[in-house]
């Protein structure tokens, strides 16, 4: 299955709740953003 190119979008940081504008990105950048979001979510959850 092909990954479709992302449209311009915004993401909200899970830690500081800042909103970031994201331009169309490649697969590697998508992985990075997802990892960053997961890190923020993990950091905001009690262990
Ligand atoms: Zn943040």
Account of the 3D structure:
With 47 residues, the chain is of the alpha+beta class. It has one domain (9-44). Helix content is 38%, strand content 17%. The protein contains one helix and two strands. It has one helix spanning 27-44; strands at residues 9-12, 19-22. The protein has a two-stranded antiparallel sheet. The model has no long low-confidence stretch (mean pLDDT 74). The structure holds zinc ion. Residues 13, 15-16, 18 line the site of zinc ion.
Q: What would you say about this model in short?
A:
By secondary structure, this protein is an alpha+beta fold. 38% of the residues lie in helices and 17% in strands. It has one domain (9-44).
Q: Which stretches are poorly predicted, pLDDT < 50 over at least 5 residues?
A: none
* End-to-end CA span: 35 Å
List the secondary-structure elements in sequence, H or E.
EEH
Helix content: 25-40%
Major sheet details: 2 strands, antiparallel
How big is the Rg? 12 Å
Annotation, overall tally of beta strands: 2
- Side-by-side strand order of the widest sheet: 1-2
Bound molecules: zinc ion
Number of helices: 1
Derived structural class? alpha+beta
- Count of distinct structural domains: 1
Q: In what range is the share of β-strand residues? A: 15-25%
Mean of pLDDT: 74
Dominant shape: flat
């Amino acid at each position: 299955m092909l990954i479709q190119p992302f449209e311009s979008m915004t993401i909200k940081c899970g830690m500081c709740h800042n909103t970031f504008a994201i331009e169309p990105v490649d697969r590697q950048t998508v992985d990075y953003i997802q990892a960053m979001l997961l890190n923020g979510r993990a950091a905001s959850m009690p262990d």
